[in-house]
Amino acid sequence: MASAVSGGVRVLLRIEGLCMFAASLLAYGKFGDGWGSFALFFLAPDLSFLAYLAGARVGAVAYNLAHSLVGPLALLAVGVLAPVPAALTAGIIWLAHIGLDRALGYGLKYSAGFGFTHLGRIGRVRAEAG
Length: 130
Hints:
This protein is mainly alpha-helical. Helix content is 58%, strand content 7%.
């Protein structure tokens, strides 16, 4: 498994996540469809957790697809350029979700298991067998 980021770089990446979350909230306040829709769809990317039922490798791929910036940025581009208001709304909500996850330390996953992320280990760290 590749090593996770640590130290000041990890802190900076988590601050970036917090800024992404805050900017998304501001954007949603201006361009969104109401806070009820935001609350309803905010956790939708976490449905990708279900892929872990098929194993860690499949789960990591599904989680990373749902938590990469590529999807929401593509939706935002369609929302602005087409224009498609629903795509803009969905892209903002999706970015807010990713931003909060990253601020809390939930990074992109490695296939070693759910707790192994690019932002470091999450969850309980098991004691090394001596």
